[in-house]
Amino acid sequence: MWKIKSSKEKYASQFVKIYDDTLILPNNKEISFTRLALRDFVTVLPILSDKVIFIKNYRYPANKSFLELPSGIIEQDETPETCAHRELKEETGYDGTLTHITWYHPIDRSLQKAHIYYADIADSTKTKRDETENQQVIILPIEKALMLFKKGTIKHAPTIIAIGLFKTILTQKAEK
């Protein structure tokens, strides 16, 4: 096991903290390691009959919009499932029955967890986005969503992972 000799916070915002750690390896070698503390988030794969509900989401750093599944940061004292319901309603106006599929670490220098939920959509409400969210709801037939996935058109990593995990199930739904 690696041992922490020291840890120094170098930067902090509401979204990220950056630490420089000094570690001692099992062979007693001392190394520096930059570590990130990122907030956990959810991604929801919402299915409405034989369609997938996406959002077209503007991303500032790239200065363009991307086709994505609803996603969002888990607020303090909020469960991943509560966050998934909240993000689904806020970003798409829809809600439904959620099933937690899995979680993963999206970056190797952080313990951040990304939770994936599958949603059977039951009803719709009005969207309630944050002021920084420039989004549009896009509902696509499953076949079209799978084609975009296969062609590499979708660039949002959590969306790629969620569709990849459900590719077989989505294909079966599309064939019915």
Give me the secondary-structure topology:
Layout: E1 3-12, E2 16-24, E3 30-38, E4 41-48, E5 51-59, E6 64-68, E7 71-73, H1 80-92, E8 94-104, E9 114-124, E10 135-141, H2 142-151, H3 157-175
Parallel strand pairs: 4-9
Antiparallel strand pairs: 1-2, 2-3, 4-5, 4-7, 5-6, 5-10, 8-9
Helix pairs in contact: 2-3
How does this model look, in words?
With 176 residues, this protein is of the alpha+beta class. It has 3 helices and 10 strands, in the order E-E-E-E-E-E-E-H-E-E-E-H-H. Strands 4, 5, 6, 7, 8, 9 and 10 form a 7-stranded mixed beta sheet that branches. Strand 1 and strand 2 (16-24) form a beta hairpin.
Here the CATH topology of the largest domain equals Nucleoside Triphosphate Pyrophosphohydrolase
Provide the CATH architecture of the largest domain: Alpha-Beta Complex
Structural class: alpha+beta
Residue-averaged pLDDT, rounded?
92
Briefly characterize the structure.
This protein is α+β, with helices and mostly antiparallel strands and 176 residues long. It has 3 helices and 10 strands; from the N terminus they run βββββββαβββαα.
What are the key terms here?
176 residues, alpha+beta, Nucleoside Triphosphate Pyrophosphohydrolase, 2 domains, 3-stranded antiparallel sheet, 10 strands, 47% strand
